Amino acid sequence: MSEGNVAADQLLLYIERIERLEEEKKGIGDDIKDVYLEAKATGYDPKIMRQIVRLRKMQPHDRQEMEAILQTYLAALGMA
């Protein structure tokens, strides 16, 4: 077995793993979409829920900083 074949075999394994993970990612994305649709059907706002999910991923300090900057910008525009 030549070294070129080993590299090609290894590359093919990586490609196949990536393809399998991409398919799983698509399935998970579809599941998430279904949950948002279910929540919307019961009266929740998916747009707001997405914002909450994004905020919950942030560190508290980063979230507080973002909120302070937002308030500053809103005040500067006369929207606060």
From TrEMBL:
Pfam families: GapR_DNA-bd (PF10073). Transmembrane segments: none annotated. Residues 7-78 form the GapR-like DNA-binding domain. Belongs to the UPF0335 family. This is UPF0335 protein ACFQ24_11685. It comes from Sphingobium olei.
